[in-house]
Amino acid sequence: MSRVRYILKRILQMIPVLFVVTVLVFLIIHLIPGEPARLILGDKASESAVAALTEKLGLNEPLTTQYMLFLKQIVTLDLGTSFSKQRPVAELLATCFPVTLALTLLSTGISLLISLPLGYYAGTHKDKLGDQVVRTASLVAISMPSFWVGLLLMIAFALKLKILPAGGWDTTSLWTQFKCLILPAVTQALMTTALLVRNTRNSVVDITRMDYVDFARSKGIPDREVRSRHVMRNATISTVTLLSMRMAGTLGGSVIIETVFSIPGIGKLASDAIFGRDYAVIQSVVLLFAVMVLVINLITDILYSLLDPRVSL
Fold first, then answer.
1. Do 150 and 182 form a contact (C-beta atoms < 8 A)?
2. Which tens digits make up the pLDDT trace of 249-300?
């Protein structure tokens, strides 16, 4: 019951945070130079046509009126219509969000599958050759920009080997969609994997020196159980913290990855909306990102209580 109360309390705390986000996003967007009506009609459009479209879009109203309309749309879940695409924003988000969610989950899964075993191996072989190789590889991976890694993967696996698509989105089947996500997911997972490897390795090194680990071994507990219950479980606590931060950063980084690979996700939608001054789409995308970050933080806190009984919600 305490966990349910905690979740409800955190959800209520999200409301003022989201309110501040709406104010900041609204003000920042309207400070961006450029007229949406002019961008939609083109440079050769007459002033009268631009003025008519501006009035039709409601952009000639005072900022306070436009902001109150924006809040009304959020409360009623009617996010308006995209200026550039002439489609409801809610429909665009419903189409693009599953793509970004699948990309984030796949890249997170890749990071965990690689980082936890490597981090544990490096931590249990401290300062040996394997540990030095893992640490060096992690440092190299952290140093490489994601867009550059993406281009290299395109050249290697799409142009040379021709086993994966270079970009785009194929809706023929789930398998073709999965193939379209492999290169973007690997690119996005690279830095997260490197950071998790280093974090897990350092945690394992510190925990194996703890007295309770030696005490567990002295009681005759099998080494496999010591690794799973005492070492990896405690090492995972700090990993969960870093992973939640990286997942939040991955959402912002999806703008670059989805643009490079032409993936029709939320990031690509946000990029197109920024260049097109599509206020309704930008505001909705940023608000969705804020909600997702808050949800990730909430899930992280709940995981703390499951991994460490000493943590009280």
1. no
2. 777 667 788 888 888 888 888 888 877 777 778 888 888 888 888 888 888 7
Lookup: tokens for 249: 């950063």
- Longest Cα pair distance anywhere in the chain, in angstroms? 85
- What is the reported pTM? 0.78
CA 57 – CA 233 distance, rounded (Å) = 54
Do residues 195 and 116 lie in contact, with contact meaning Cβ atoms separated by under 8 Å?
no
Q: How far apart are CA 120 and CA 142, in angstroms?
A: 19
124: helix, coil or strand? helix
Residue 190: which of 108, 82, 134, 130 has the closest Cα? 108
- Cα–Cα distance between 77 and 287 in angstroms, integer? 12
Within 13 A of 62's CA, how many CA atoms are on the CB side?
A: 3
- Torsion-angle region of 165 (φ positive above 0: left; ψ -120 to 50: alpha; else: beta): beta
Cβ-based burial of 1 (10 A; exposed 0-12, middle 13-18, buried ≥19): exposed
Helices (H) and strands (E) in the chain, counts: 13, 0
| Span 222-251, pLDDT tens digits | 777 777 677 777 777 777 778 877 877 777
Asked whether 283 and 22 are in contact (CB, 8 A), the reply is yes
Contacts of residue 175, Cβ cutoff 8 Å, sequence gap at least 6: none
Question: How is the chain split into domains, by residue range?
Answer: 2-75, 97-307
Which two tokens mark 206? 């510190």
- Percentage helix, strand, coil for the chain under 3-state DSSP, each rounded to 5: 80, 0, 20
- CA-to-CA distance for 135 and 31, rounded, in angstroms? 44
Q: Which residues face 88 on adjacent strands?
A: 81
Give CATH superfamily name and number for 97-307.
Answer: MetI-like (1.10.3720.10)
